[in-house]
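Technical annex, item 7. During the second reporting period the consortium partners agreed on a shared format for inverse folding records so that results from different sites could be compared directly. Each record opens with the tokenized structure and is followed by the designed sequence. A conforming record, contributed by the partner at site C, is shown below for reference.
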């Protein structure tokens, strides 16, 4: 019988061996508690797995939620089989519902300009916040990655930052002259420790950085929701629009699969369509059309 204690073992494995984020682990726990409660007094076989899918559909979960719950179930049983706690993985061959790809939210260059002009460069906090914005947009790193960043990770001479990404994987990202200048002005003689800190010298958390981005997006008068991930999306989209190679963008973003990066090609196509529709005289019935 599958027990709640097995969930704890699995989550411990995700944290210690796979280096999953706390947020992901919380989602896994919620999904797996639901699964274990469903499996109570049921044999964990393929028929039960199909019944579980039907139950999720009956509960009117979205396709995205169902896909996530099935993915959690597959990973969980794969772990149980590895640990000899289950004979088989009944979810291995169960197909997840197809999820329509959601285009990433990004900012246009003119919106980026407004955002980067929002911090007050005359104050230490403004210099810090400008450096945060410039690094996020200039490198495409995740908010957790910039939060973890230490001075020892930055190579100003080469214009490189060593980043610890998902799954504890290390990669090198590049930053340009503008982010370089913003960092130098903010750090001003600081020699070691966390790069971005609060007034008491404590490392800024990912949540604090998210609030900073939200504050400046409102100050800049940008109507759409802006998060650190919006800047990551903007970084990738603008690189591809500028002619960057897809695999280079994949490397800079730290994506394992090229298909994850390919979603940005859809964004650039949508942008091209908008420009074409707005600019070409024959696009929407112009010139006697």
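Designed sequence (site C submission):
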């Amino acid at each position: 019988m599958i027990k709640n204690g097995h969930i704890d073992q699995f989550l411990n494995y995700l944290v210690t061996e796979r280096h999953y984020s706390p947020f992901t682990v919380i989602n896994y726990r919620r999904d797996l508690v639901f699964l274990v409660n469903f499996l109570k007094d049921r044999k964990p076989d393929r028929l039960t797995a199909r019944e579980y899918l039907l139950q999720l559909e009956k509960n009117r979960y979205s396709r995205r939620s169902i896909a996530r719950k099935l993915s959690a179930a597959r990973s969980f049983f794969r772990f149980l089989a590895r640990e000899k706690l289950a004979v088989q993985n009944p979810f291995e061959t169960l197909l997840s519902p197809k999820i329509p790809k959601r285009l990433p939210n990004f900012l246009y260059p003119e919106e980026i300009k407004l955002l980067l002009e929002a911090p007050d460069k005359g104050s230490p906090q403004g210099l810090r916040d400008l450096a945060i914005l410039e690094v996020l947009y200039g490198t495409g790193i995740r908010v957790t990655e910039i939060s973890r960043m230490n001075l020892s990770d930055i190579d100003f001479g080469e214009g490189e930052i060593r980043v610890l990404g998902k799954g504890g994987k290390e990669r090198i990202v590049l930053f340009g002259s503008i982010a370089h200048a913003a960092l130098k002005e903010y750090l001003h003689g600081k020699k070691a420790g966390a790069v971005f800190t609060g007034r008491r010298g404590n490392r800024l958390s990912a949540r604090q950085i998210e609030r900073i981005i939200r504050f400046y997006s409102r100050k800049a008068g940008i109507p759409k929701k802006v998060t650190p991930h919006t800047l990551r999306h903007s970084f990738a989209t603008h690189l591809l629009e500028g002619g960057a190679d897809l695999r280079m963008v994949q490397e800079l973003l730290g994506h394992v699969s090229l298909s994850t990066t390919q979603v940005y090609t859809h964004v650039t196509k949508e942008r091209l369509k908008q420009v074409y529709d707005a600019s070409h005289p024959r696009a929407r019935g112009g010139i006697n059309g």
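The chain has a mean pLDDT of 87. The radius of gyration is 23 Å. All partners now use this format for quarterly exchanges.
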